[in-house]
């Protein structure tokens, strides 16, 4: 069984993703800076697919598998102390 998103909504600090298995995920917008800084209209232009979420105008793709694993934006670089 593939778990997919059935809807996405936002509040001030959180993205809420309803899943096909009945769960609802609350994901901090701070995990995804493009969504954090997007306008409400830009956030509402999400495209749902079988495997994830896509925002064309924001160049943002988020997999459901990644959300379930607790991963945020993996494109940002991390700095490590030497």
Please give a structural write-up.
It comes from Bradyrhizobium diversitatis. It holds the Pfam family DUF2442. This is DUF2442 domain-containing protein. With 82 residues, this protein is an alpha+beta fold. The protein has one domain: 2-Layer Sandwich (NE0471 N-terminal domain-like), CATH 3.30.2020.40. It has helices at 33-36, 40-44, 64-68, and strands spanning 5-10, 14-19, 24-28, 47-48, 52-55, 60-63. The longest helix is centred in the middle third of the chain and has 5 residues, at 40-44. The model has no long low-confidence stretch (mean pLDDT 91).
Name its key features.
3 helices, three-stranded antiparallel sheet, 82 residues, DUF2442, globular, DUF2442 domain-containing protein, alpha+beta, NE0471 N-terminal domain-like, 17% helix
Quick structural overview:
With about 80 residues, this protein is α+β, with helices and mostly antiparallel strands. The protein has 3 helices and 6 strands; from the N terminus they run βββααβββα.
Biggest beta sheet attributes: 3 strands, antiparallel
Q: How many alpha or pi helices?
A: 3
What is the 3D form?
globular
CATH class: Alpha Beta
CATH topology: NE0471 N-terminal domain-like
Helix/strand-derived category reads alpha+beta
> Which whole number gives the mean pLDDT?
91
Helix content: 10-25%
Please mark out the parts with pLDDT under 50 across 5 or more consecutive residues, or reply none: none
Pfam family, one: DUF2442
Protein name: DUF2442 domain-containing protein
InterPro entries: DUF2442 (IPR018841)
């Amino acid at each position: 069984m593939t778990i997919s998103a059935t809807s996405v909504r936002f509040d001030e600090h959180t993205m809420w993703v309803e899943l096909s298995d009945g769960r609802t995920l609350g994901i901090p917008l701070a995990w995804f800076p493009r969504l954090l800084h997007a306008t409400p209209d830009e956030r509402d232009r999400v495209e749902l697919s079988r495997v994830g979420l896509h925002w064309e105008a924001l160049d943002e793709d988020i997999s459901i598998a990644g959300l379930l694993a607790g991963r945020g934006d993996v494109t940002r670089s991390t700095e490590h102390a030497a």
